[in-house]
Amino acid sequence: MNGTARGAEDVRAIVVQARELYEFQDFKFAGDYGEDGFLEDYAASVQGEPLGVVVVVTRNDAGNAQHLVVLHRPRSSLLLFSRLMHEKFAGTPNADHFLAES
């Protein structure tokens, strides 16, 4: 993802769309870490291509998500995922965060 999604509506839209692209999620770990963090580690696939995913959430003092980082691997699957996200958000500002078909 290029840039930063700002605001709950954009972040929610991106997370929901990503989950729709995943064919499955096989969680290895999901839970709190530290005083204000939450961590997920899971395997997934998109169009049959494997993805390893790590999600790190930092909460604010009210306990709400303040910062979210999502890492996908391997690179080949990440590039496919990014192109699909670009297609799904075509015509919206969120499309600019993802790789356009070249």
UniProtKB/TrEMBL annotation:
It comes from the Bacteria. This is GNAT family N-acetyltransferase.
